[in-house]
Amino acid sequence: MRKKLSPITYHLSPGFTLIELLVVISIIGILAALIMTNFNAARERARDVQRKSDLNQIKTSLRMYYNDKNLYPLTKNFTFGEPFASGEMVYMKYVPHDPSYIVADGAPEYSYLSADGTDYCLITTLENLSDQDIANSHLRCTCGAESEYVVCPE
């Protein structure tokens, strides 16, 4: 609505122009994109921390099993997603899956390898491939690909 101020000039009612609105929307979109990128990276790091924690818990339960039996379970006798027990002794109520594990397609998953029960190798793939713990894990263990995080008995 226009108000007549003088015979020559007209004043428009206050408001935003289309260009001002587009600039504000663009700035909000750019900020949202930056925030989502950082948020997704934080979620990836959290899943990687969960993976490392899971493998260390499994390592502890495998050590308890070894103390009782003087050998580690063979690959075929160790299942993720189920209890880890021997007779009456329960070493883990539930052997965890990878945090990104999807039941329908079964991937990704942790791997457990033990051919003869004298040693084992737990393997997972971290989302942050530049994580220094990957290289450090290969200093202790000689199994798995260079890009995988591995855990073995000490």
TrEMBL record:
Entry annotated with the keyword Metal-binding: no
GO cellular component: type II protein secretion system complex
Region forming the signal peptide: none
Pfam families documented for this protein: N_methyl
Superkingdom field: Bacteria
Biological processes, Gene Ontology terms: protein secretion by the type II secretion system
Transmembrane regions: 12-37
InterPro entries for this protein: Bac_GSPG_pilin (IPR000983), N_methyl_site (IPR012902), Pilin-like (IPR045584)
Keyword annotations of the record: Membrane, Methylation, Transmembrane, Transmembrane helix
NCBIfam families membership: IV_pilin_GFxxxE
Name recorded for this polypeptide: Type II secretion system protein GspG C-terminal domain-containing protein
